[in-house]
């Protein structure tokens, strides 16, 4: 997988953090939860060292997505709520909408369809406003 090669080659902390964030998404899409967890944990370490709001948000989102994929819904909601708060502080509408989608999926797994629908509707509205048609369609 190309992302594994990228992770072997990146040298700077900033680029590594970006690659790790992408790796989590790619690994989850390919159902490799252990690899996604490893990338998310490394991203958490980097975020802790640099104490940058963007990295804290990306790390919390990655950890929440991994926990959700692993079936640990309660842990996922905690991390995803943390990411939601960070993305709101950063005024970052696209990742905020992504997190809302993940929270909606977590609520759905808990059987809370009303909560899920609220999160999905907020995410879809943001994606449409941003012109992110594929995301809005999902």
Description:
The protein has helices spanning about 1-10, 15-30, 35-50, 55-70, 75-90, 95-110, 115-130, 135. It contains eight helices and no strands. By secondary structure, it is an all-alpha fold. It has a single domain (about 1-135), classed as Serine Threonine Protein Phosphatase 5, Tetratricopeptide repeat. The two termini are about 25 Å apart. The radius of gyration is 15 Å and the shape is globular.
> The CATH topology is what?
Serine Threonine Protein Phosphatase 5, Tetratricopeptide repeat
User: What is the total tally of β strands?
Assistant: 0
Instruction: Give unreliable regions as ranges.
Output: none
Strand pairing plus helix content: what structural class?
A: mainly alpha
Number of helices: 8
Helix content: over 70%
Domain module count: 1
CATH architecture group name: Alpha Horseshoe
List the helices and strands in order. Answer: HHHHHHHH
Instruction: Give me the CATH superfamily.
Output: Tetratricopeptide repeat domain
List keywords for this structure.
138 residues, mainly alpha, globular
Summary?
Helices cover 86% and strands 0% of the residues.
What is the fold's blueprint, element by element?
Layout: H1 2-9, H2 13-29, H3 33-50, H4 53-69, H5 73-90, H6 93-109, H7 113-130, H8 133-137
């Amino acid at each position: 997988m190309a992302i594994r090669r990228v992770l072997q080659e990146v040298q700077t902390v900033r680029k590594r953090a970006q690659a790790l964030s992408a790796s989590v998404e790619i690994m989850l899409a390919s159902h490799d939860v252990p690899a996604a967890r490893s990338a998310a944990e490394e991203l958490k370490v980097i975020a802790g060292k640099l104490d940058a709001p963007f990295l804290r948000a990306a790390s919390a989102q990655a950890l929440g997505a991994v926990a959700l994929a692993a079936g640990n819904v309660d842990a996922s909601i905690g991390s995803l709520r943390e990411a939601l708060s960070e993305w709101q502080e950063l005024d970052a509408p696209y990742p905020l909408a992504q997190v809302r989608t993940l929270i909606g999926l977590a609520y759905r797994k808990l059987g809370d369809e009303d909560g899920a629908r609220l999160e999905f509707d907020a995410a879809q509205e943001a994606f449409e406003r941003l012109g992110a048609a594929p995301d809005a369609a999902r």
